[in-house]
Amino acid sequence: MAVTSVQYASDELTEETVDAVVIGGGAAGLNGALILARSRRSVVVIDSGSPRNAPAEAVHGLLALDGTPPTEILRRGREEVRQYGGRVVHGEVVSAEPAAPADGDLRFTVTLADDRTITARRILVATGLKDVLPDVPGLAEHWGHSVVHCPYCHGWEVRDEPIGILATGPVSIDHAFLYRQLTEDLTYFTNGTDLDEDNRARFAARGIRVIDTPVIEVVNEGGALAGVRLADGKVVARRILAVLGQLKIRAQGLEGLGLTVQDTPKGRSFASGAAGATEVPGVWVAGNVTDLVAQVGASAAAGALAGADINRMLAIADTDAALHLAGTRATL
């Protein structure tokens, strides 16, 4: 599925060593950068301008910002980071790896696709993820509009519509019950996945229709989603399709950091501990790259926690360096 690119004004990439580089400029990355910048830390956000939620018309379920276009939230976020001295640089990271320590502290080198480099004392990875949809012709072109994934992000907007659940595995069963809360006209397309008798009975009790014939394409009428065509040629009219695609974290270019990857029921993510700290000293993760189902608000909160923890650890490192320098002077 093609990734929508969002254009934005880019700051210059500084040649000086910075306190932190944030890789990824979504809600998690920008909020982490905001906390760091407000703590008078030098921080640079590297972002390729391809947010996961770019196709969506609005972000929902976010207090005080419900209904705001995602591009507007990111625009405001970038300006807020810049307001406190942070930089937001358009670019694609192709490598990030530890460098030789300096002044008794950690160092990392981040390289961009155009060969620009930057050195940082700490790194926050907030690259997010991408949705890999089932290979059904016509499905991807409606992504973020008539093809949705999150009942909390889009549910109210599709209430009372004829909705189809295009199953991708066991996770789609719970998905169906959530969408049943939003409409009485719900059809579950098993599409080659297993659905046991117990869940078939539960679906029947809630009035959820089950179709086992495979779906071969999405049917359009005048550019709008009109239904799905089954392998037997029958067309089932639907206005909305809900599908949980494969959630794949954006890890390209980060291999050199040696981050631990964990398997979860929703997919693979980077492992993290409190405030997003990883097992790799000096590296934090936040947002969908470690919490696959986090919405915008949760991702932003995770970024804030990570930013505060990075600042705390930098303060300790600054104090250790000052103490070492004082001891050196005392012996002269």
List the helices and strands and how they pair.
Elements: E1 18-23, H1 27-38, E2 43-47, H2 70-83, E3 87-90, E4 93-102, E5 105-112, E6 117-125, E7 129-132, E8 147-148, H3 151-154, E9 163-166, H4 171-180, E10 186-189, H5 197-205, E11 209-211, E12 215-221, E13 224-230, E14 235-237, E15 240-242, E16 246-249, E17 261-264, E18 267-270, E19 283-285, H6 296-331
Parallel strand pairs: 1-2, 1-6, 2-3, 6-19, 8-15, 9-10, 9-15, 10-11
Antiparallel strand pairs: 4-5, 5-6, 7-16, 12-13, 13-14, 17-18
Q: Total number of helical segments?
A: 6
Level-1 CATH class name of the largest domain: Alpha Beta
Annotated CATH topology of the largest domain: FAD/NAD(P)-binding domain
Q: Mind telling me the C-alpha Rg?
A: 23 Å
Detail the poorly predicted runs. none
CATH architecture of the largest domain: 3-Layer(bba) Sandwich
Largest sheet at a glance?
Answer: 7 strands, mixed
* Inertia-based shape: elongated
User: What string, H for helix and E for strand, traces the elements in order?
Assistant: EHEHEEEEEEHEHEHEEEEEEEEEH
Mean pLDDT: 95
Helix content: 25-40%
Cα end-to-end separation:
64 Å
What class would the helix/strand composition place it in? alpha/beta
How many beta-strand segments? 19
CATH homologous superfamily title of the largest domain: FAD/NAD(P)-binding domain
What fraction of residues sit in β-strands? 25-35%
Give the total of domains: 2
